[in-house]
Amino acid sequence: MTPHINAAKDDIAEIVLMPGDPLRAKYIAETYLTDAKQVSDVRNMLAFTGFYKGVRLSVMGHGMGIPSVSIYTHELIHEYDVKKLVRVGSCGGVAEDIDLRDIIVVNAASTGSATNRLRFGGYDYAAVPDFELLRTCWQTADSLKTPVRYGGIFTNDFFYGDPENLLPVLLKMNILALDMESAALFAIAAENRVQALSILTVSDHVVKGGEMSTLERQTSFNQMMELALETVIAD
Ligand SMILES: O=P(O)(O)O[C@H]1O[C@H](CO)[C@@H](O)[C@H]1O
Ligand SMILES: O=c1cc[nH]c(=O)[nH]1
């Protein structure tokens, strides 16, 4: 057990799917896993373990922002020997040709957070997902015929009140969307030699407007969940 996870060591699988929202974790477990049992509830950051098509895996919320995802992924890797972490999150669309409900598979995550720079001795770290997992996801999306966009996102420390110069540079550099965790997830995975991937659904568009309801965010990311689940069992 850790300060933030009260599962017994063997109660967490080597593969963990991670939405920000613990209720989305509950939804995934109830909808897709067989023999799912709740294995952690500290701070209501619910975790479940069960089977998807015979493969044992866990689903756990990671909360919002880099500090939160960093705590949970650190504990999962160091105390529970987790080897594969897949974020299944929401994001804010930025690029003009991105629409509400689009699925984005992140192939690079820039960030304004100082954490990766500190981790990387003051240099600019290129935060990328695990290539094998990314390749499996690409093959899986192809075989499921799931329309997916691949591209760079920006992991933001702000949800409200972005610095004024942020949006223009994101548009200039063809950043597809904003989230608040992927860049740290990729760096932590690389540092610990485990695999990470981030699949996001566009829940709102910061330039064009429009947003999904809270209930929709909790429950209607099914295509993304199926892509993530089929990817981890194929990898
Ligand atoms: O829906 P999740 O996975 O939490 O992802 C996005 O939503 C939260 C902000 O509302 C941040 O965590 C951001 O990364
Ligand atoms: O990080 C996020 C997620 C969804 N929408 C945003 O604007 N930002």
TrEMBL record:
<comment type="subunit">
    <text>Homohexamer; trimer of homodimers.</text>
</comment>
<feature type="binding site" description="in other chain">
    <location>
        <begin position="179"/>
        <end position="181"/>
    </location>
    <ligand>
        <name>a purine D-ribonucleoside</name>
    </ligand>
</feature>
<comment type="function">
    <text>Catalyzes the reversible phosphorolytic breakdown of the N-glycosidic bond in the beta-(deoxy)ribonucleoside molecules, with the formation of the corresponding free purine bases and pentose-1-phosphate.</text>
</comment>
<dbReference type="InterPro" id="IPR004402">
    <property type="entry name" value="DeoD-type"/>
</dbReference>
<dbReference type="Pfam" id="PF01048">
    <property type="entry name" value="PNP_UDP_1"/>
</dbReference>
<feature type="site" description="Important for catalytic activity">
    <location>
        <position position="217"/>
    </location>
</feature>
<dbReference type="GO" id="GO:0004731">
    <property type="term" value="F:purine-nucleoside phosphorylase activity"/>
</dbReference>
<dbReference type="InterPro" id="IPR000845">
    <property type="entry name" value="Nucleoside_phosphorylase_d"/>
</dbReference>
<dbReference type="InterPro" id="IPR035994">
    <property type="entry name" value="Nucleoside_phosphorylase_sf"/>
</dbReference>
<feature type="binding site" description="in other chain">
    <location>
        <position position="24"/>
    </location>
    <ligand>
        <name>phosphate</name>
    </ligand>
</feature>
<feature type="binding site" description="in other chain">
    <location>
        <begin position="87"/>
        <end position="90"/>
    </location>
    <ligand>
        <name>phosphate</name>
    </ligand>
</feature>
<feature type="binding site">
    <location>
        <position position="43"/>
    </location>
    <ligand>
        <name>phosphate</name>
    </ligand>
</feature>
<keyword id="KW-0808">Transferase</keyword>
<feature type="domain" description="Nucleoside phosphorylase">
    <location>
        <begin position="15"/>
        <end position="225"/>
    </location>
</feature>
<protein>
    <recommendedName>
        <fullName>Purine nucleoside phosphorylase DeoD-type</fullName>
        <ecNumber>2.4.2.1</ecNumber>
    </recommendedName>
</protein>
<feature type="binding site" description="in other chain">
    <location>
        <begin position="203"/>
        <end position="204"/>
    </location>
    <ligand>
        <name>a purine D-ribonucleoside</name>
    </ligand>
</feature>
<feature type="binding site" description="in other chain">
    <location>
        <position position="20"/>
    </location>
    <ligand>
        <name>phosphate</name>
    </ligand>
</feature>
<comment type="similarity">
    <text>Belongs to the PNP/UDP phosphorylase family.</text>
</comment>
<feature type="active site" description="Proton donor">
    <location>
        <position position="204"/>
    </location>
</feature>
<feature type="binding site">
    <location>
        <position position="4"/>
    </location>
    <ligand>
        <name>a purine D-ribonucleoside</name>
    </ligand>
</feature>
<keyword id="KW-0328">Glycosyltransferase</keyword>
<dbReference type="InterPro" id="IPR018016">
    <property type="entry name" value="Nucleoside_phosphorylase_CS"/>
</dbReference>
